[in-house]
Write a structure and sequence with these properties.
- Two copies of one chain form a homodimer.
- The first copy, chain A, has 215 residues and is an alpha+beta fold.
- Chain A has a single domain, classed as Roll (Pnp Oxidase, Chain A).
- The first copy, chain A, is 21% helix and 37% strand.
- In chain A, strands 1, 2, 3, 4, 5, 6, 7, 8, 9 and 10 form a ten-stranded antiparallel sheet that branches.
- Chain A is globular.
- In chain A, 39% of the residues are buried.
- Chains A, B: InterPro entries: Pyridox_Oxase-rel (IPR024747), Split_barrel_FMN-bd (IPR012349).
- Chains A, B: This is Pyridoxamine 5'-phosphate oxidase family protein.
- Chains A, B: It comes from Blastochloris sulfoviridis.
Chain lengths: 215, 215
């Protein structure tokens, strides 16, 4: 994909050699890390709300209660949606070069509500089935009042930047002669065995897809 | 500890039965999850920057380049520092009751710079030694220009709220008769074996503390 040139606000300043603006990198991070932090301003006050997002094509989606402070504040307003994960502790030879391996994406935009009920339900179905394929069809069907109480927000990610750091420490050249151990301690997300609800009906079977779940 | 009564902006609205305002809960989350997202406003635009924080007593600290956009924008300004981790996917019997087990803390405040160079160095030492005990003393000593290029920010967390969800799904009472598997898929952070830098000097030994590293 052709890299999108950064805008004034997405241009990465710090560690700018780690910056990526190509859609493939941005999509890979947005899809791999479903946990985002949405920054917005309410009454002049910055707020950061963690939530789960998902992507469909060129749009990001997330949902919330129709009555939530975040949902009410962000419609049509500027938000900054940041996704980040730490992949390792980079133990350099100096404190100054200590670092973390990480992936992050920062998206700027103005979210809008999905107003059509059928479209909203289709997006929620996509969210559930991305987590556990086929699960939407196994669940107790959604009720109209539940659909009404749920807001789905959507935002393009055409104004976005990514930062990726991988690999060993990058020390000052003279520091490689300093006798201290250096390296990386990798960190990753681990998924454990599913824990059945004690109130499961006798005979209900865990869907095989639950065993394959990766966030 | 006595719970601090929530302020108008820390009072949790959504899922408010998950809210906690006691210092022990807040401290436990701030200490267990070193990865935070700092929300601030620059030229009317919300920005969310991921970084690492650490706690000393009643103050939170983080550091950055003295020249960074975030560091320049936040001194004395309102910020919202949010820490959050997802601990599991809660597979309920309806899409509406799907959830995530999670821990989060939201802190409001106005950060200030640590200006005294000796204090700044002491805080950086604490940061490094919290990650890997004793590592500061093993590293190539910090240079005055490095200390100058590093800004340490500090902020109290006396205006904070936490949210914690644990345990099995909470379904509508009538849904417990619906024949679908329900349960929790736990998620956690895994630390892998340290990867030595290929440029390590022969004979340098990995500190035992690196093996005990937990974020």
């Amino acid at each position: 994909m052709t890299p999108t040139p950064p805008s004034e606000r997405t241009r990465v300043r710090r560690y700018n050699w780690l910056a990526r603006y190509d859609r493939d990198t941005i999509v890979a991070i947005l899809d791999a890390i479903p946990h985002c932090h949405i920054g917005y301003v309410a009454d002049g006050q910055p707020l950061v709300t963690p939530t789960l997002h998902w992507r469909e094509g060129d749009q990001l989606y997330w949902h919330g209660s129709a009555a939530s402070r975040m949902i009410r504040a962000i419609e049509g307003a500027e938000v900054c949606l940041t996704v980040s994960a730490i992949d390792g502790l980079v133990m350099a030879r100096s404190a100054f070069n200590f670092n973390v391996n990480h992936r992050s994406v920062m998206v700027f935009g103005r979210p809008s509500k999905v107003t059509d009920p059928a479209a909203k339900e289709a997006h929620l179905r996509t969210m559930v089935n991305r987590l556990i394929p086929g699960q939407w069809e196994r669940l107790r069907p959604m009720k109209p009042n539940e659909l009404e109480a749920t807001t789905v927000m959507s935002m393009p990610f055409d104004e976005a930047s990514a930062k990726v750091r991988v690999g060993p420490p990058e020390d000052d050249e003279t520091d490689y002669a300093f006798p201290v151990w250096a390296g990386v301690i990798p960190i990753r997300t681990e998924v454990l065995a599913p824990e059945p609800d004690p109130r499961n009906l006798p005979g209900v079977e865990m869907p095989a897809e639950a065993l394959a779940f990766r966030p």
